[in-house]
Write a structure and sequence with these properties.
Number of domains: 2
Radius of gyration: 20 Å
Number of helices: 13
Structural class: alpha/beta
CATH architecture of the largest domain: 3-Layer(aba) Sandwich
Strand content: 15-25%
Largest sheet: 8 strands, mixed
Helix content: 25-40%
Order of helices and strands: HHEHEHHEHEHEEHHHEEHEEHEEEEH
Strand order of the largest sheet: 3-2-1-4-5-6-7-8
CATH superfamily of the largest domain: NAD(P)-binding Rossmann-like Domain
Distance between the termini: 53 Å
Bound molecules: zinc ion
């Protein structure tokens, strides 16, 4: 039984009632629910995809609001975890989609569990190591995924359908050294570029879920400032280490160090050393005269010039610094091992 809300969608012949049923049965992982991920999540949620699994490591801040369409000022004021804020807003729209939210940093350890039983993965991440990790996992598992990236007014998109065209490493063998590509930090970003790429990404997601046969994978490049769109042919490379030789280095080694600087923010993420007992930590902070607040499983405290957010998996974001050594020192001093 197809709910009446999808009437106009099932009238679109390539989708039809059978396609709508496939969407209803589908489970999709979104890695990142900020700009691209949030936009794509909204489109897939509205389209009636059965289950959306949202994973995001970050919290909402005010400078997200021009392009991260799921978030509101109240989320920025509360520094809500993006995955939870996204789930809240999507669920408010109603509809049959189930949403599972995970406020985690996606890495080689947790990706297999997050992607378990999924039919598709969408890239809404903000960094290349995560994309190469997704590529390794999806090629190994034969799972389609859609790479997407936006900087400034430009966007790039590649659907990867293992066995039916190139993977990310066929086209870009290795990520360039850190610091060589422009980022949202250095070049800024405008929302129309995000919306354009996310719309193409969500469109390909529906296609891959409903009727992947005959889809010609191509690298798509667009510019939302000049209105240009280019479709570049993309060939599989038989010498590709991932889809050719079956090497999956990003799955075999930890993808992040203990401390990383988040893109576009004065924020350092500390991976942490496992689950923290929040009751005991709260008592210790109180003794030390540090003000803190609990938001369910999340504990937030201000320390020196930073604001710290501790997640259930032991991960901490220190906002207000880009100094990883300093953040590690604050972690040791206030949370400890
Ligand atoms: Zn390849």
């Amino acid at each position: 039984m197809i709910p009446p809300r999808f009437d106009r969608q099932v009238r679109f012949a390539p989708l039809g009632r059978a396609g709508q049923q496939r969407l209803a049965d589908a489970r999709v992982l979104l890695v990142g629910t900020g700009a691209l991920g949030g936009f794509s999540a909204q489109l897939l949620h509205r389209a009636g995809v059965g289950t959306l699994v949202l994973a995001d490591r970050d919290v909402v801040e005010e400078s997200n609001l021009p392009r991260q369409v799921l978030f509101e000022e109240a989320h920025a004021r509360a520094a809500s975890p993006k995955a939870l804020a996204a789930a809240e807003v999507l669920e408010r729209a109603g509809g049959p989609t189930r949403v599972e939210a995970h406020a985690v940093h996606v890495d080689a350890d947790n990706l297999p569990a997050l992607a378990a039983e999924c039919d598709l993965v969408l890239d809404g991440s903000d960094n290349l190591p995560t994309r190469y990790l997704i590529n390794d996992y999806c090629v190994r598992e034969g799972l389609p995924w859609v790479y997407a990236g936006v900087v400034g007014s430009a966007g790039l998109l590649l659907p990867v359908h293992p066995g039916h065209g190139p993977c990310l490493r066929c086209l870009f063998r290795d990520p360039p050294p850190p610091g060589t590509l422009p980022t949202c930090d250095t070049a800024g970003v405008i929302a129309p570029a995000v919306g354009a790429i996310a719309s193409l990404q969500a469109g390909l997601a529906l296609r891959l879920l409903v009727d992947p046969e005959g889809l010609e994978p191509a690298l798509v490049e667009l510019d939302a400032w000049s209105g240009e769109l280019r479709r570049l042919g993309a060939q599989r490379d038989p010498a590709c280490p991932t889809c050719g030789a079956g090497e999956f280095p990003y799955l075999e080694s930890p993808t992040t160090g203990e401390a990383v600087i988040l893109c576009g923010r004065r924020t350092v993420q500390i991976r942490g050393r496992g689950k923290v007992d929040l009751e005991r930590l709260g008592e210790r902070l109180q003794v030390a005269g540090v003000e803190f607040m609990r938001l369910g499983d999340i504990l937030r405290f201000g320390v020196e010039e930073t604001r710290a957010t501790l997640f259930p998996d032991g991960r901490v974001l220190f906002e207000g610094t880009e100094d990883t050594q300093r953040a590690l020192a604050l972690y040791d001093r206030y949370i400890g091992s």
